[in-house]
Amino acid sequence: MVSVLQNVAIDCADPYELARFWSEVTGCPVHPEDGPGDEETRVMLREGPILHFNKVPEPKAVKNRVHLCLRPDSTRDEEVDRLLHLGATLVADLREPDGTGWTILADPEGNEFCVLRSASDRAGTAPHP
Length: 129
Fold this sequence. Notes:
By secondary structure, the protein is an alpha/beta fold. It has two domains: 1-58, 2-Layer Sandwich (Signal recognition particle alu RNA binding heterodimer, srp9/1), CATH 3.30.720.120; 60-129, 2,3-Dihydroxybiphenyl 1,2-Dioxygenase, domain 1. It has three helices and seven strands; from the N terminus they run E-H-E-E-E-H-E-E-E-H. The protein has helices at residues 15-26, 76-86, 119-123; strands at residues 7-12, 40-43, 50-55, 68-70, 89-93, 103-106, 112-115. The strands form two sheets. A four-stranded mixed beta sheet has the order 4-7-6-5, covered by helices on one side. The chain has a three-stranded mixed beta sheet with strand order 1-3-2, covered by helices on one side. Strand 6 and strand 7 form a beta hairpin. The longest helix is centred in the N-terminal third of the chain and has 12 residues, at 15-26. The model has no long low-confidence stretch (mean pLDDT 93).
C-alpha cells in the first residue's frame, strides 16, 4: 500500500487572493467554485497535486520548512522578473556568474519559493517559443 499526494496546503490570511497570485504564477485556474471570502481556495494544476490555500488567523512568522520549487518554461531570469512584477518579493539571489544557481522569492503573504534554472538554461540554449 502507498499514499498519493492529494494537495499541497498553504496557510494564509486571504486564500482567494493568494490563490489568484499562484494561478498567475502557474497559468492554472482557481477552482471555479471558489471565490472571495472562502475559507479554502484551490488552484487546479495540470499535473500533480492541487495547491490548497487555507485561511488561518495567525500571520507567517518564520522560514518555511517546506517550499515550492518552480522550473520555468522561459529562462530563470525572465521568470524571476515576471514573478516580481506579479507581486513576489526577492528573499535571496543565489544565481552565480556562470549561470548556475537559483533565486528565492516570497509570495504576497511571505511564503518562500525557489525559481530554478529552466531546461534551456541548463542546456545553454535559448527557449523555444
